[in-house]
Amino acid sequence: MVADLQNNFRSRALCSKLHFENIRFRKKNLLKFLLVKFKVNFLKDAPQVPERYAGIFNNLPLDDKGLDIFSNNKPLLNFDDKYIGIAPGSKHFTKMWPKKYYIELGELLNSAGYKIVVFGGRNDIDTCCEVSSKISGGLNLCNSNNILQTVAEMKKCKAVICNDSGLMHAACAAGVPVLAFFGSTVREFGFFPYKNKNNVMENKELSCRPCTHIGRESCPLGHFKCMMELTPQSAFLELNQLLNNE
User: Fold this and answer.
1) What pLDDT band is residue 53 in, cutting at 50, 70 and 90?
2) Does 148 map to a domain?
3) Is residue 167 in some structural domain?
4) Does the CA dihedral 229-233-239-240 come out positive or negative?
């Protein structure tokens, strides 16, 4: 059996050449379109994507432990230090909290006695270098998409601060508390932190959200309030609340 969770032209073309039974994930693209373009929301009660994925396997039962990822990689970080991870990258601009905010938050955390570790993949190298170099004592552990090494390091952190990105889900799978910023995207698309301790920061006062279901290269209205109004000071308070509730 082949499970086509991507369900796009390329995945369907690939599956057509494989002589196995295949099942496809229904992506609810029409409902996403209505929410983005007309703000008509039929997805208020939609389950998160892991549960929807399980649904195509005759409602495969899931446990309550959330995502899993297993790594035998040896971490560089120590057990005893107070590390906070930062993953500032994302494929799309409108899903990225501003770099200057990450830097300012990193300095606030330094003042509170934490050590900052910056995570990212191959496409995040420039962003991670800039952020880590401007945070006092910042340690840059960006790599060439070695997700198992990144997860091994994340497990040594008190929390991971990130955008709506793949590394957010990696941190959740590692069982690390997550503070996540959501700009152009929203919970209804199914990709919020799943069954992991988290705080999500988003600007719920904006009528223009969501402006896309995957991300854009610029704010269509030019103000980028969905991210700009989420300040480093408010993020610092949210993180403290997250950590104090452990």
Assistant:
1) very high
2) yes
3) yes
4) negative
Largest CA distance in the chain: 59
Tens digit of each residue's pLDDT (9 = 90 or more) over 146-158? 999 999 999 999 9
CA gyration radius for the chain?
A: 19
52 vs 4: CA distance, rounded Å: 13
Quick check: is 105 in a domain?
yes
For residue 123, the number of C-alpha atoms closer than 13 Å in the C-beta half-sphere is 8
With a cut of 70, say whether residue 246 has pLDDT above it: no
Whether 14 is covered by a domain: the verdict is no
**Which residue range is the domain that position 166 belongs to?**
83-244
- Report the CATH number at residue 117: 3.40.50.2000
- If one counts every other C-beta atom within 10 angstroms of the C-beta of residue 228, the result is 14
Tell me the per-residue pLDDT of 195-221, one tens digit each, with 9 for 90 and over: 999 999 999 999 999 999 999 999 999
User: What number of other Cβ atoms are within 10 A of residue 94's Cβ?
Assistant: 24
| Amino acid 217: pLDDT | 97
How many domains would you assign to the chain? 1
Question: Distance between alpha carbon 77 and the CA centroid of its chain, in Å?
Answer: 22
Average the pLDDT over 225-242 and give the result: 98
